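dumping this here before i forget
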Amino acid sequence: MDIERRIKQLKSDQKLVDQSINRNKLKFIDEIKNGLGKKIINEINKPVKKKEVEEEKEQSKGLFRKMKIWISSLSQK
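structure:
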């Protein structure tokens, strides 16, 4: 009898936990929709500021470029 009562209690507890999870999940989804949705709409409606084009800086010769030069010099020989 004690085991059957415990099983019923556990099933009841499981139902309560499932209901709580579903309630919190729906609440979380609504918060995301309301919060992120408004943020996205505000970002879309915000005017875009054009940035000035920056000139590229001269790059130093990295390992890949040195290897490329070395390989091309070997192939020419």
